[in-house]
Every structure is written in C-alpha cells, then in structure tokens.
C-alpha cells in the first residue's frame, strides 16, 4: 500500500462512506476477495506487470478522490499539493498537467483554443 501512497480506507473519500471501512479492509472476506481477484487475473493470463498496472490505476482513482478544489469561484489544485503529486506519480502523469486537466475545460473553435476554469463544484463533479 505504501508503494502507491494509500492510507487506511477511512482516510480516502471514496471508501469512507462506511464507519466500518477500516475493519472491513482487515476482514477475511476482503482478504479472500483480493486473493480471488489475483487468481482471476492470472487465469486470464495477465502478467504480474499488468496486475500491478491495474492496482496502480485503482490506487490513482482513490487518490484523485481525495483532492480538494478550494472554495473560491475558480477551482484550484496546486501542482505542488502532496495529494496531487501522489496521484500523479501513481498514475504516471505530470502533476501540473493533471491539475490543469482537473480544473480547466478546453475547446477549440475555428482554430482558436478556449480555456474555461471550472468552479470547485464542477471540478469535483468532473473528477467523480
């Protein structure tokens, strides 16, 4: 878990809906589910590297869910934010590019690129 910067389940927004999330993660049911999932991945001939890629992607999604976009009228996620840096590293992305992708909408018309900053609620909705 530390390799992909994950913490206890209750510390991740996408997993913290249940007060029992930490105890469930330690349960035999969860551990057996993980083992079964690994067996299924191996059964369809996924390499160890491919399995790790899947786990990195899932970890990246959990880390993205922990990002906040501020309370101002324009969404902001600092490329220097430790949570953004963790998510970018796990996903293999540049933090500044990831920040822009999460907070700015771009479109082009007649060869001109138009950028519109999201409001925090819109950035959260697009991320989710």
Key structural traits:
mainly alpha; 2 strands; 128 residues; two-stranded antiparallel ribbon; single chain
Brief summary of the model shown:
The chain is mainly alpha-helical. Helix content is 52%, strand content 9%. The radius of gyration is 18 Å and the shape is globular.
Verbal overview:
The protein has a two-stranded antiparallel ribbon. Helix content is 52%, strand content 9%. The two termini are 22 Å apart. With 128 residues, it is mostly helical. The chain is globular, with a radius of gyration of 18 Å. The longest helix is centred in the middle third of the chain and has 18 residues, at 48-65. α3 runs antiparallel to α4.
**What is the structural class?**
mainly alpha
Strands ordered across the widest β-sheet: 1-2
Could you give the count of β-strands? 2
Q: List low-confidence stretches.
A: none
Structural topology:
Blueprint: H1 21-25, H2 28-43, H3 48-65, H4 82-91, H5 95-103, E1 104-109, E2 112-117, H6 120-127
Antiparallel strand pairs: 1-2
Helix pairs in contact: 3-4
């Amino acid at each position: 878990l530390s390799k992909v910067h994950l913490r206890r389940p209750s510390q991740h927004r996408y997993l913290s809906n249940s007060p029992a999330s930490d105890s469930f993660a330690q349960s035999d049911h969860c551990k057996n589910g993980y083992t079964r999932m690994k067996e299924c991945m191996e059964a369809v001939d996924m390499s160890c590297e491919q399995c790790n890629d899947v786990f990195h992607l899932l970890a990246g999604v959990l880390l993205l869910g922990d990002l906040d976009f501020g309370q101002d009228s324009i969404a902001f996620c600092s490329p220097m934010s430790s949570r953004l840096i963790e998510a970018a590293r796990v996903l293999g992305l540049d933090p500044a590019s990831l920040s822009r992708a999460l907070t700015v909408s771009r479109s082009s018309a007649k060869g001109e690129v138009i950028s519109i900053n999201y409001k925090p609620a819109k950035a959260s909705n697009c991320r989710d």
